[in-house]
Amino acid sequence: MNWIVPHWPAAANVRALSTTRNGGISEGVFEGLNLGAHVGDDSGRVEANRALLQQAANIPGRLNWLNQVHGVAVHPVSNDYDAAPDADAACGRDAGLACIVMTADCLPVLFCDKAGTRVAAAHAGWRGLHAGVLEASIAAMGCEPSDILAWLGPAIGPTAFEVGGEVRDAFLAEQAEAVAAFVQSANEGKWLADIYQLARLRLARAGVTAVYGGEHCTFGEEERFFSYRRDGQTGRMASIIWLAE
After folding, report:
1. Do the strands 119-124 and 89-92 form a parallel or antiparallel pair, or are they unpaired?
2. CA angle 182, 187, 190 (to 5 degrees)
3. Would the pLDDT of 233 be above 80?
4. What is the structure's pLDDT at 167?
């Protein structure tokens, strides 16, 4: 099993990672470390994969999984976790409680403050990104945006993320600078979108300028990542952040 660790100047007590599809016991289209319980994989294998990850990464406490709905709700993690709440982001200030989002092309964004006292994780597909899930996550952290570090985890890259003109129009209507994040596709009426650049623009507008990551393409790196756009039925990776005891 292996995962990606952010390269960012986070405080020593901040722990963060993004999984890949490597490792785990799922089979078929879910082969490897599928962590999604909602995609059609055997539930026992998913639970085993989650337990393997928690043990290998030494993640303390219960894992606060979310039922992601492409919205902007932010779930405050706690030890009272029961059923997965409908939310696309999580935040926490207590040591040992992990914030987790799952993706398979959408953009995972991990946040921490420079002092290492609070963390958050957001799931940002284009709908959630446009709706303001990053801004909601920043607000939920309850600190100055200038004190926040953000890391962009593995997502679909700018040469693979084709969208319709209505998506481009929606972003440009809110932020004219977003024009630089779209390149006309070879397919008529379609555009190639750079979700990393769109996220950086939204973060900068919110006051977060210490932004890292954004080097991968889940669609193109087939051996390493699940990709819904590429494969349809597939597994899910997780991006996780917590404060050490």
Report:
1. antiparallel
2. 40
3. yes
4. 97
pTM for the full predicted model: 0.96
Average pLDDT over every residue of 115-129: 97
Give yes or no for a contact between 137 and 74, defined as CB atoms under 8 angstroms apart.
yes
What single DSSP character describes residue 210?
E
Q: Copy the structure tokens of residue 178.
A: 């977003």
Token pair for 170: 């929606």
Distances (CA, A) of 33 to 92, 129, 201, 221: 25, 26, 32, 15
Task: State the DSSP code for 86.
Answer: B
139, 118 in Cβ contact below 8 A? Answer: no
User: Quick one: pLDDT at residue 78?
Assistant: 85
Q: Nearest Cα to 154, choosing from 222, 87, 243?
A: 222
Distance CA 16, CA 14 (A): 7
Distances (CA, A) of 118 to 25, 41, 90, 109: 33, 33, 11, 14
> How many angstroms separate the CA atoms of 143 and 226, rounded?
34
Strand partners, 75: 90
pLDDT for 82 beyond 80 = no
